[in-house]
């Protein structure tokens, strides 16, 4: 569902560019608004959320989809935790829908899906592992790296229940915005994938904006 935001970029309390293929970890406090902006279009932002005070509580795709009764995420979606509580609510979306079924790329999946020689290519899982290794203050370990949201990524579900990675439906300047319902840790891999069309075979930067 397309809903535009009234937030103005010049009023944001923080603006961070996450370069193509790079990662981000930080906290969004309860009541703050987080926007992910697809600067050049067709990007995939592989994202995990955690309760900042107890990271054993984290984003759960199955709880989120079951409770909303739809397979895509968009404006109105409540992003639920493995304890069924709402971490964030999507309040604006100019892309239209976002995936939470396709999972993230990893050296293992690159090897299985594409070729043995792809094993050493940069992946989302490696990005997350690098972020949590660089920031031990969040207390996250390999076990916390679970199923995720792929903001902007296009994984259509067919009538027959088929699932494919397709060319993106996002475009330059499209964004998704959400309000934190509790203090959350945000962990993002700005997908570096070069073997499927999730980011148009061309990783590009995204911007994160936060408002109080
Ligand atoms: Zn990826």
From TrEMBL:
Domain DUF1989 residue range list: 17-185
Signal peptide: none
Pfam families listed in its UniProt record: DUF1989
Annotated protein name in UniProt: Urea carboxylase-associated family protein
């Amino acid at each position: 569902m397309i809903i535009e935001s009234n937030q103005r970029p010049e009023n944001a309390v923080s603006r961070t560019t996450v370069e193509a293929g790079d990662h981000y970890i930080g906290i969004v406090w309860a009541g703050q608004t987080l926007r992910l902006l697809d600067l050049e279009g067709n990007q995939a932002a592989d994202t995990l959320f955690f309760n900042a005070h107890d990271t054993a509580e984290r984003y759960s795709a199955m709880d989120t989809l079951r409770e909303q009764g739809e397979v895509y995420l968009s404006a109105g979606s409540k992003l639920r935790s493995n304890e069924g509580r709402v971490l964030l609510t999507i309040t604006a979306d100019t892309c239209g829908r976002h995936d939470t079924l396709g999972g993230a790329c990893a050296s293992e999946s690159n090897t299985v899906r594409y070729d043995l020689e792809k094993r050493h290519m940069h992946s989302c899982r490696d990005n997350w592992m690098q972020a949590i290794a660089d920031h031990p203050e969040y207390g996250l370990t390999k076990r916390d790296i679970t199923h995720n949201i792929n903001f902007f990524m296009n994984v259509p579900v067919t009538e027959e229940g088929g699932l494919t990675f397709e060319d993106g439906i996002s475009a330059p300047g499209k964004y998704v915005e959400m309000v934190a319902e509790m203090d959350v840790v945000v962990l993002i891999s700005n997908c570096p994938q070069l073997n499927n069309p999730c980011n148009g075979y061309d990783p590009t930067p995204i911007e994160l904006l936060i408002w109080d």
